[in-house]
Automatic annotation (TrEMBL):
Lineage, opening ranks: Eukaryota, Metamonada, Preaxostyla, Paratrimastigidae, Paratrimastix
Ranges where the record places region Disordered: 273-318
Keyword Isomerase part of the UniProt annotation: no
Organism: Paratrimastix pyriformis
Coiled-coil residues: 229-256
Transmembrane segments: none
Protein's UniProt name: TNF receptor-associated factor 5
Pfam families: zf-TRAF
Top-rank taxon: Eukaryota
Zinc-finger ranges (TRAF-type): 109-163, 164-208
Domain TRAF-type: 109-163, 164-208
Compositionally biased spans, kind Basic residues: 289-300
Length: 318
């Protein structure tokens, strides 16, 4: 534990309180008054020593002078033998009050081993801090711990999000059907909706916008028979009008085609028996090795249509 003597700079010498024996004045830093950390010997005539960090702090603000004798200091050097003497002094951890040992082992105890050191909960999102010896108890009840779903749906959930998981996504949570009085696990609702008697369904009659509950569909078909006939009649009229328009268009195209044939009869021969005969074009027959179209084999019942294998389209005019 670093001393941070009252009013002094940070990262300074060790508090004399942690040492088991009274500390000789020779080990104290004249700048921070703590037991020297990383002692450096100054180039003053008395070779006074201070903490290395204190030396750096002093150099920042003014030309370095020894805080003991106030002589100007040109150089300073880490004093390894003196540091070893300090490292072997025995200290007690005042945080846990239990541990004693050489100063050189104190830092590891304080940062990694002391049961009373302050630690943070490792669960992501949790900002709880406590003594290391209390951490295990906290982690058992921490809101940010990961726990299996209360209803054993197989999901792992952050403890504080359990209610939200049960309320919105858990497939095992029992919820009421939106339409009827049945209560089922959330995961079974889609299957239930396929048969739920109160769920609204589409009326199968085109043009009818009413969506009766499934259980009332046949009653609706019976009750709305007149409306359904009206809707179907309207639909039929619409379809008939469309068909008439298409037929007119077809006849017009046929007249146009006749005119084209009459004006250039040497090169175009066209065959259309009726508009209904306009079937999708068949694929061209695959070529044989000699480059002629291969004749398709046909079953007994299939009449041969030789025109399709010709390069020209033959259309006799009526
Ligand atoms: Zn110091
Ligand atoms: Zn000095
Ligand atoms: Zn301790
Ligand atoms: Zn926590
Ligand atoms: Zn669940
Ligand atoms: Zn239902
Ligand atoms: Zn209907």
């Amino acid at each position: 534990m670093l001393a941070q003597a009252a009013g002094g700079p940070l990262h300074v010498g060790y508090s004399p309180q942690i040492f088991l024996q009274e500390v000789d004045n020779v080990f104290l830093c004249a700048y921070c008054h703590g037991v020297m950390c990383q002692p450096v010997t100054l180039s003053c005539s008395s070779s006074h020593k201070i903490c290395r960090h204190c030396c750096t702090e002093l150099s920042k603000t003014e030309p370095l002078t020894c805080p003991s004798c106030h002589e100007p200091v040109k150089t300073h050097q880490l004093d390894i033998p003196f540091k070893t003497l300090i490292d072997h002094l025995t200290v007690r951890c005042i945080v846990c009050g239990d541990w004693t040992g050489p100063l050189e082992a104190f830092e590891q105890h304080a940062e990694c081993l002391c049961p009373s050191r302050v630690v943070g909960c490792p669960h992501p999102g949790c900002s709880h801090t406590c003594r290391a010896l209390e951490l295990a108890d906290h982690m058992l009840v921490c809101d940010y711990r990961c726990v299996p779903c209360e209803l054993a749906c197989g999901a792992d959930v952050i403890a504080k999000d359990m209610q939200s998981h049960l309320g919105t996504t858990c497939p095992r949570m029992a919820i009421p059907c939106t339409y009827c009085t049945v209560t089922l696990p959330r995961g079974d609702i889609p299957t239930h909706l396929e048969v739920c008697p109160e769920m609204p369904v589409d009326c199968p009659v085109p043009g009818c916008l009413i969506r009766p509950p499934r259980v009332q569909l046949s009653a609706h078909l019976h009750d709305a028979a007149v409306d359904h006939v009206a809707a179907l009649t309207a639909l039929l009229r619409e379809t008939q009008a469309e068909l008439a328009a298409k037929t007119t268009e077809c006849l017009q195209l046929r007249e146009d085609l006749k005119r084209v044939v009459a004006s250039d009869a040497d090169t175009v021969t066209v065959q259309i028996s009726s508009p209904a005969a306009m079937t999708p074009a068949r694929k061209p027959a695959p070529l044989t090795k000699r480059g002629r179209p291969r004749k398709e084999r046909r079953g007994k019942g299939t009449p041969a249509v030789e025109q399709e294998e010709e390069a020209r389209v033959v259309v006799p005019l009526e």
